[in-house]
Amino acid sequence: MKRTYQPNNRRKAKKQGFFARMKSGIITRRRKKGRKALIH
To answer: How much helix, strand and coil, in percent to the nearest 5, is found in the chain?
Structure first.
C-alpha cells in the first residue's frame, strides 16, 4: 500500500518556493518592511 505523501520537489518549489513568493508579493511586502531575512 502506498503512503499518502509522495513528495515532489519540483511541484513543491512551484507552489512554495522563492519565485512563487515573488509572484504572490510576500517578498516585496517584507522588503518594504525592511526585514533582513526575507525567507526563514
So the answer is: 60, 0, 40
Average pLDDT along the chain, 40 residues, taken 10 residues at a time: 90 89 88 83
- Which triple of cell numbers denotes residue 4? 499518502
CA distance 11 to 23: 16
- Whether residue 20 contacts residue 14, with contact meaning beta carbons closer than 8 Å, is answered with yes
Distance separating alpha carbons of residues 37 and 14, to the nearest angstrom = 21
3 state SS of 17 = coil
The count of C-alpha atoms lying within 13 angstroms of the C-alpha of 33, restricted to the half-sphere facing its C-beta, is 10
